[in-house]
Amino acid sequence: MDYDDIVTVDDFSDGERDDFYEGPNAGRKRTYHNILERKRRNHIKDGYVKLRDVIPDIEGKKVSRIQILKRAVEHIGFLKAEVKKREMHFREVKLRLKNEGC
């Protein structure tokens, strides 16, 4: 199946969209849509919980989503700097060993 074959609600005219949501199966379709939306929100919520739980200073604490994102950005910056520092140290050790003839 190509992405071109996928039909979305935006592909319908206003009248067709109204029929879709207000026709004989509208209640069932709306319920199904609500279930999908709830699953989507729960999936996002679970993602924030997982992200929070891998950030050392907020791990397991109750914090807002914006705080989770801010701390994640800070922590990623810290980790990038740490990687860079260790890479430099590795190069220095490697150069020192090379100069010592090992």
From TrEMBL:
Domain of life, per UniProt, equals Eukaryota
Its cellular-component GO annotations read: RNA polymerase II transcription regulator complex
Q: Which Gene3D superfamilies match?
A: Helix-loop-helix DNA-binding domain
Which keywords fit this entry according to its UniProt record? Activator, DNA-binding, Nucleus, Transcription, Transcription regulation
Q: Does the keyword Glycosyltransferase apply?
A: no
The record ties this protein, via SUPFAM superfamilies, to: HLH, helix-loop-helix DNA-binding domain
Domain BHLH residues, every copy: 28-79
Segments passing through the bilayer: none
- Record flagged with keyword Transcription regulation: yes
The family classification in the record reads:
Belongs to the MAX family.
PANTHER family, sorted: PROTEIN MAX (PTHR10328:SF3), PROTEIN MAX MYC-ASSOCIATED FACTOR X (PTHR10328)
Full protein name: BHLH domain-containing protein
Organism equals Caerostris darwini
Q: What is the lineage of its organism?
A: Eukaryota, Metazoa, Ecdysozoa, Arthropoda, Chelicerata
